[in-house]
Amino acid sequence: MSAYELVAYGPHHRDDYLGLLREAWGEGSMSREEFDWWFEGNPEGSLRSVALREGRVVGVAAHTLLRLVLGGEERLASFSVHATTHASARGLGIFAALESRHEEEALARGVAVVLAFASPPTAPIFLGPLGWTEIGRLRVWARPLRGIVLRGPEMGVRAERSDPFPESGDRAAAWPNHVVRDVRHLTWRYADSPWGYRVLVAPEGYAAVRAKLHRGVPVAVLADLVAPAGAARALVRSALRAAVGCRAAVALPAPGQRSLFASLGFVPTRHTLHLMGKGLAGPLDPDPQTWRFTLGDTDFF
Question: Which pLDDT band holds residue 154 (cuts at 50, 70, 90)?
Fold first, then answer.
């Protein structure tokens, strides 16, 4: 029997959803706390669906809704996240069907564009049957942390443990197409996160950093950095100092920041984030130079 049914996610599907993610990604997949924070806590909302086959959940997928500035105008967008299909149901078109369902729902919600940092198995489906467009590959940079012995932030930088984002405006307003970084988004994404981010604040900007196990190795993830060059250097150095016990640090510097990161010991790695998208209620700009993301704009960093 190859038929399946697509239904909206309900709370009674949570364990099955998490179970499929665990089968696909191992013990490092989402916990219940992380699942609830990411989907229920997101102030913009989310879209979730499951595929049923003979009453059993065999496919799951979601879209995270976020406000983006697109071409200088604030619009609603959605990111395809946390999707997988059980091995017994692969080859039936479930992933494409779930994505098509979410595109229709997103359009009804007023979403302008849908985006994804696609994995190797999903990229051909996005670019083929779903009709998405490749934007580009964003290269992750890294540096080893052996020999880092200093503690505490740089002069002029402080670590905030409560209310780290008092300003209400978009902290990244000068960037090209980007996720809006106002107090509502930043509080959810970093301050309320169960991932244990440390927020470092300077007079002209901020950074968010956390420790994460990557293939069993503790790494420091510089998830977000919004600051002019002078403050950015102090914030990155403070993030490195905060990475106690980590073997390496990773970041996604913008083109204009690469010389700064190189001067601090970072080098480009082979790992890239494969960015692609599709216009729904507006055109998609395929020029990678018109977009700016950090690792914190993904669902896995």
Answer: low
When mean pLDDT is compared across 145-154, 166-175, 224-233, 265-274, the lowest value belongs to 145-154
5-137+272-297: which CATH number, 3.40.630.30, 3.40.30.10, 3.30.450.20, 3.90.1170.40?
3.40.630.30
Return the closest-CA partner of residue 96 out of 171, 177, 214, 4: 4
Fold of 139-271: Aminopeptidase (3.40.630)
CA gap 284, 31 in Å, rounded: 34
**Domain 5-137+272-297 identical in fold to domain 139-271:** yes
SS3 state at 230: helix
Residues 6 or more apart in contact with residue 277 via CB below 8 angstroms: 113, 114, 115, 116, 132, 133, 135, 284
Average of per-residue pLDDT across 175-203: 95
Q: In angstroms, rounded to a whole number, what is the distance separating the alpha carbons of residues 296 and 197?
A: 10
> Which residues, other chains included, contact 173 with Cβ-Cβ below 8 Å and sequence gap of 6+?
69
Pairing, β 217-226 against β 248-251: parallel
- State what percent of residues in the chain have pLDDT above 90: 84
Q: Answer whether 51's CB lies under 8 Å from 44's CB.
A: no
CB-based contacts of 78: which residues, under 8 Å, 6+ apart?
A: 47, 63, 64, 65, 66, 102, 106, 109, 111, 113, 114, 115
Whether pLDDT at 4 is above 80: yes
Query: What is the domain partition of the chain in residue ranges?
Result: 5-137+272-297, 139-271
User: Each residue of 103-123: pLDDT tens digit?
Assistant: 999 999 999 999 999 999 999
Q: Cα–Cα distances in Å, from 219 out to 29, 31, 179, 197?
A: 17, 20, 24, 13
Q: Which residue has the higher pLDDT, 27 or 80?
A: 80
Mean pLDDT of the chain: 93
